[in-house]
Amino acid sequence: MIPSTVIVVGGVAGGMSAAARLRRLDEQARIIVLERGPDVSFANCGLPYHVSGEIPDRSALLVQTPAGLAASLALDVRTGHEVTGLDAAAKTVQVATPIGDTTLSYDALILSPGAAAAIPPLPGIDHPRVRTLRTVQDAVDLRGMVTSGATDAVVIGAGFIGLEAAEALRHAGLNVTVVEFAPHVLPPLEDEMAWWLARELDRLGIAVKTGVSVNRIDDADGRALATLSDGTTVAADLVVLSVGTRINSAVFEAAGVACERGAIIVDDHGRTNLPDVYACGDAVLSVDAVTGSRRPVQLAGPANRAGRLVADALRTPSARPLPTLLGTAIVRVGQLTAAMTGANSASLTAAGRDFATIRVHPGNHAGYYPGSTQMHLLVHVDRATGALLGAQGVGGDGVDKRLDVLATAMRGGLTAPQLLELDLCYSPPYGSAKDPITMIGLVADNLLTGQAAFWQPEELPWARREAYLLDVRTPQEFATGHLPEAVNIAHTALRGRLDEVRQAAAGRSIAVMCQSGVRSYIAHRVLAAAGLQSSTLTGGMLTLRAWLGDQAASVLV
Ligand code: FAD
């Protein structure tokens, strides 16, 4: 029997996973990997840490070499080979190689061409000081600029890669300005979560300009001079452009591969509309596990997994389908970690979901054990069913663990109240007997059973105008900043002052708040037992301050 030929386009996360898996399933197949760049299997995710100097040696980013892959997996890996055309009827690809063009035949074709950095058509964007961070060479170039005396940097775009680049450059000692068009850094984060990151960026000495775009780049004696939409200018020795991606699908779309806004449309086994043509990774449309919407999810874990599953689909009738995606992602910014999974409030609102948001601000481990740090977690919960719809966290140690537990719970179909049923490991250096995850479960259970009622920061105008606002923190805490309409009765004094509260509320709903939401919940139960209608501010003053952001100074007295 003539062994079949499988051509893989793209030799990094998705493509190389597909090729390696295929070899393990089929010892006879000819597997050719075509990669237009000089490297395969490189660690995209490690690039920022080479720029910072934390990964000093470039070679550490090269996880595999063509020679190593030939030796261990009998893969025919060809770097410097760019696929420039596809003839699906003839089952051939046209390839530009270092020694000229050629045509290769395939029995099956796997596309994992990923995405390139988007380059907006701005005047001066081709200035030699403007760089992207996508390849090993990009990282090496940026590192070279850093070590040869660059002092000032501008990062355009404060998404994951932009923030990592900013942190890396600051770590290397540069003055860094981040320019972000959206109202806050890391746009998928909720406003209140992004506020904690903004504070950390400030602490790191990174200047952040949000709600502003770069209009043009000019040359200033060899440096780049960025003119911003607010009329200001920033001079820099290097500019990192990280404003999103452009999917490398044009060649394939032109050959008839069905795409939506540049992303390749695949079924749940990675099959495109063309016979024997499969696709995976950053270049494809994935199905959002929560909203069902289709969007590219450009993350390494899903790309690696999809490569494997597409190879399975080629060789195994019972291959697992590609899972829908939660888009679980994480980023380090200084001493903080920000992580998220599932949908955020904007996408839930767009999808018409009726949800409540729960916030908790627990320690990462028992407060009495040295070194405990506070984390800020929020979870979006379906009001009717308690389904977990999305979660975000910002804090120090342990945020990654909590978000991974939440992502696992979501994948497993646990509801938010069921989180309290999880048996999680605990000892004081690691957590608390009531882990932050347990806390979310307890609060969700209270919400779903009606034991607790919450008001959200978005309802602040209602609370100030129509409710009786009761702040149950201590007088000392109250003095550090409170809503001007709030009446202060510490929760420990509330039981003795119920008549006063009843009279002052005069039939109005009572909007209770405290520092984090624990004492206001106790107060809510006291009020409920006295027949008074009340609700507690989820996340308390910690959430409200973060949600108000820069406005806190003018709203609180
Ligand atoms: P890629 O890894 O981009 O590989 C595609 C390859 O195809 C490229 O090498 C390209 O040269 C090649 N190619 C394209 N067109 C052709 C063609 N016509 N012919 C031949 N070759 C072609 N994800 C995370 O989950 N966590 C992180 O911390 C993280 N950090 C990142 C940091 C940076 C700086 C970057 C750039 C990405 C990061 N990612 C991270 C994203 C992650 O790297 C990608 O999701 C993943 O690499 C996608 O794999 P892929 O195979 O789809 O595409």
CATH class of the largest domain: Alpha Beta
Count of separate structural domains: 4
Q: Quick one: how many beta strands?
A: 32
Unique bound compounds: flavin-adenine dinucleotide
In CATH terms, what is the fold-level topology of the largest domain? FAD/NAD(P)-binding domain
The proportion of strand residues reads 25-35%
Q: Estimate the mean pLDDT confidence.
A: 96
Distance between the termini: 82 Å
Instruction: Indicate the low-confidence ranges by residue numbers.
Output: none
CATH superfamily of the largest domain: FAD/NAD(P)-binding domain
Supply Rg. 27 Å
Characterize the biggest β-sheet. Answer: 5 strands, parallel
Q: How would you describe what is shown here?
A:
By secondary structure, this protein is α/β, with parallel strands linked by helices. The protein has a 5-stranded parallel sheet. It has a 5-stranded parallel sheet with strand order 9-16-10-11-12, covered by helices on one side. The chain folds into 4 domains: 5-37 and 80-115 and 246-315, FAD/NAD(P)-binding domain; 130-243, 3-Layer(bba) Sandwich (FAD/NAD(P)-binding domain), CATH 3.50.50; 335-448, FAD/NAD(P)-binding domain (3-Layer(bba) Sandwich); 454-555, Rhodanese-like domain (Oxidized Rhodanese, domain 1, 3-Layer(aba) Sandwich), CATH 3.40.250.10. The protein is 29% helix and 25% strand. It is built from 17 helices and 32 strands. Bound molecules: flavin-adenine dinucleotide (FAD).
